[in-house]
């Protein structure tokens, strides 16, 4: 049955023991092994509130999809998880987001270090206008992950292999990354994010600028990466969410309406708004 | 009848008429544009033709071949052949004797003085250098090309009309006769005017060169680019990449735009009171000139550098942040290298403007007559546009062609700089 005024008290939160969470979200916001967990997160752009009181856990080595209509705040929430919102003038955040139990917004959290642990892939492929090699090597270089050139070569190769790009570019590593096709560029960006060995990879509509073939390759890649990485993906494409994710969170007007196992959300949504959205009544 | 009942033929006619009118309007509009372009091209052609037509003659200078008898009693009366003794020789006497020998029938003193005046005063110095370099010439004879005086040069170049009444021209009948005789004896030639590029300014037009002004401009520009580019880029980087957008940065932005519009002479007065009167830096020096031009160029460079930074897409910044680059790393590793060509282009165009700037230099005393080529940043100097101004206000007619020649040199510099900017832009410009 669906209703939009359901009041759910979530099960005891594993990352913050002894603090039961009051939330209007339908479904189970907490998971067994949370990597990231957000509690009472509000984000404002100037006077406008983009995110309202969000509570959500992101589970280890799984793909969590954030879906919802345009302007619902899903990208804003995604970007709050590696503090990319800090770079936007006028953005302000309240609440708490923890990564492995540590508050990422606390004063002693180094934001540069955080972004090495929580990598990001953007909507538009945005390789640096440098060589393919340099694109991947840049992250390890600035974080001092490789001592010798040989170490760096290994990191570059394994990152490109993990992104499924190695066989296509191994003979032209010195060519500019911007000369690749759109899908290859996006996989290069994924390789670049993986080169610094993050725990979490945030993907902000990574396929929206790609054709169906390139999209399918990225989706396969996401499925493979799930073994080693925790992935959060924002997507407009509900089939994509259904295909790649294990857990889906539905956002509406800055609120987290419903969260649950992907197949349950898509077959048996618990909230009318979710149902309206996934059946295409608005979006 | 209303339009619904129009037959299709009537409607077609109406549409065709409209279309004709529209095509006409388009043709007319293109014609206006073409006229404007042709007009400006015409002005440019006129300008260049005028300057080159007047100035090209300055690159040639008239020389007169004189048979010199290197008499020992005049050059080296003690017979030492030492360089310092040779330098004290009476070369004027040597030249005068040679000229008298050339025209033996000129005996009257005043006539003889006029005869000596065919040659430039610098002929004596040229001969001295020649002898000091070749002491073996003493006691022998030789024929030497010596620089003619400026009014003789004008006569040879045909800029003095021989038809005019004698009292209306600078060259009298006697001199014309002498020159005709010399020409008939193949003793008059025009040579390429190297000294125009190797000498400083002079009161005598035939000796005046551009090197002093070129070096003055060069020194000043070195100071300007050395200071204004780093300062301008740093300011632009701070405002564009680091500063928060608030009232403070708004005020700064408005003021930078205002500064860019301040008339350059105001910067000259500022330089006069700050650099010369307060800091006591040397007047007329390229150092102060460069500092003043720095003040003037800085807003332009800041504005163009900010535009270059704005042109770097935000996705590059996000990409750098996204893999954990700090703000400084993001700026230095990614944004600055991408914006640099644009910044350089803006800086070169700013430099070109500074090179052509005259007014502020007048205020700090770079307008004085300086014969010596400047050797360092604090020696007195002029600059190219100031030299144009100085020569254009000189009385001698021979300075007219030199003024145009100096303009040509200035324009050559400006065109080279603009060309460099275009090449830089085409070579490094990136499309996103």
Number of domains of chain A: 1
CATH architectural name of the largest domain in chain B: Orthogonal Bundle
Total domains of chain B, how many? 3
How many beta strands in the DSSP annotation of chain A?
12
How large is the radius of gyration of chain A?
A: 19 Å
Mean pLDDT of chain A: 87
Beta fraction of the residues of chain B?
A: 5-15%
Largest interface: A-B, 27 and 20 residues
Q: Strand-residue fraction of chain A? A: 25-35%
Class from secondary-structure proportions of chain A: alpha/beta
CATH class of chain A: Alpha Beta
H-E order of chain A: EEEEEHEEHEHHHHEHEHEEHH
CATH superfamily of chain A: P-loop containing nucleotide triphosphate hydrolases
Helical content of chain A stands at: 25-40%
If you had to describe this structure to a student in words, what would you say it looks like?
The complex is a heterodimer of chains A (283) and B (432). With 283 residues, chain A is of the alpha/beta class. Chain A has a single domain (8-278), classed as Rossmann fold (3-Layer(aba) Sandwich), CATH 3.40.50.300. Chain A contains 10 helices and 12 strands. Chain A has helices at 74-80, 111-117, 132-143, 149-162, 166-169, 182-194, 212-225, 238-244, 262-267, 272-278; strands at 8-9, 22-23, 34-45, 48-59, 63-67, 91-99, 102-103, 118-121, 200-204, 230-234, 247-252, 255-261. In chain A, strands 8-9-10-5-11-12 form a 6-stranded mixed beta sheet, with helices on both faces. In chain A, strands 4-3-6-7 form a 4-stranded antiparallel beta sheet, with helices on one face. Chain A has a two-stranded antiparallel sheet with strand order 1-2. In chain A, strand 11 and strand 12 form a beta hairpin. In chain A, helix 3 crosses helix 4, helix 3 (132-143) packs parallel to helix 6 (182-194) and helix 4 crosses helix 6. The longest helix of chain A has 14 residues, at 149-162. The two termini of chain A are 22 Å apart. Chain B has 432 residues and is mainly α. Chain B folds into 3 domains: 3-56; 59-199, no CATH class; 211-428, MetI-like (MetI-like fold, Orthogonal Bundle). Chain B is 65% helix and 5% strand. Chain B contains 18 helices and 3 strands. Chain B has a 3-stranded antiparallel beta sheet with strand order 2-1-3. In chain B, helix 17 (384-392) packs antiparallel against helix 18 (398-428). Chain B is extended, with a radius of gyration of 32 Å. The mean pLDDT of chain B is 90. The chains are: A alpha/beta (283), B mainly alpha (432). Chains A and B meet through helix 2, strand 8, helix 3 and helix 6 of A and helix 14 and helix 15 of B.
